[in-house]
Structures are given as C-alpha cells and as structure tokens.
Write a structure and sequence with these properties.
Helix content is about 30%, strand content about 30%. The chain contains four helices and eight strands; from the N terminus they run ββααβββαβαββ. The chain has helices at about 20-30, 45-60, 105-120, 135-145, and strands at about 5, 10-15, 60-70, 75-80, 90-95, 125-130, 145-155, 155-165. An eight-stranded mixed beta sheet has the order 1-2-3-4-5-6-8-7, with helices on both faces. A hairpin with a 7-residue loop joins strand 4 (about 75-80) and strand 5 (about 90-95). This is N-acetyltransferase domain-containing protein.
Amino acid sequence: VKPINLETSRLLLRPYSANDRGQFLALNCDPEVRCHMNGPLTRQTADKRFNHVLTGQTDGRGASWAIIEKGTGAHIGHAFLELSDSHPFHELGFLFFKSFWGRGYGTETALRLVEYCLRDAGLPGLSASVDCDHAPSIRVLEKVGLKRERVAVDDHGPFFIYSIKRKLEA
C-alpha cells in the first residue's frame, strides 16, 4: 500500500513530510491522545517512530498519513496501515488531537482508508486492535464495517481484534 493523497469532504490524508515532525511528536507524546494506545511515547521514541514513518513511505513496510482539516489547513491527526502482529491482514489505526474528538473525523478517516485499501489497493482485508474499554473507537470500527473477531491479551491487557474482508466481485 502506498501513502497517496486521499480526500473526504472535510479531510485530506496526505503522506508525511519532514515538516510534520513537530505535530507528529506533539500528538504521540500526549497522554490523553494515547491513553488507549499503551500510553504516550517519549520524545525520543516518537522521534524514532517519525523517522520510521518517513522511511516506511518509500520502502513499502507500511503507510502513514497526516490528517489535515481542509477548511483550516490544521494538522489534526495521524492514520497508519502496518503489518499486524496479531492478524494476517494489515492493521489500520488512527489518532487525533483531543480538540478534534467528537466531530466524526475518526469515522470519516477510517471509511476512506477502508475504501482505499480494499477497493483501490486490492488488499484482501484489514484488521484493527482496540482497547476493550475504548467505546468511541469501537463505534468507529463497527460503523465502517469491521467485525469483532476475538479478544487478545498482551503485556498491557486485553484488547479486541476487528477485521473486514474485501468482498469478491460476482
């Protein structure tokens, strides 16, 4: 999957550039934003991850997008697609600055990425993992068609695995 520009009515999902480092670090070091993602990253870890995001866009390991609000040009979040440790399908993920929660941007982002990955990129399916108590993200995943498969457990506790398969044309 290649990180290309993707649009919705309100959002632009675009590949990262070096100029996005500050926003990426601010987002990933925020304890509230990452409270359901095993906690905030240290600045050093977030910086390394950003370097990985930039190189990953050219080596095919995954895809990441800066999420931009079209009306304001504000960098409001991050979306990614990566190989999953817990599922054979690529894993979808997204996070937003707290000031943009509750506006439907998660659903809009997830729906556009599901369409792109299953229809345009031809992936066989997508997966997502979500904390069992993270109701807003669970609602987003279910709204865009992912189904709960099972509960898994790691060092941080239990979480749900969701997935969606590409529908084969008849």
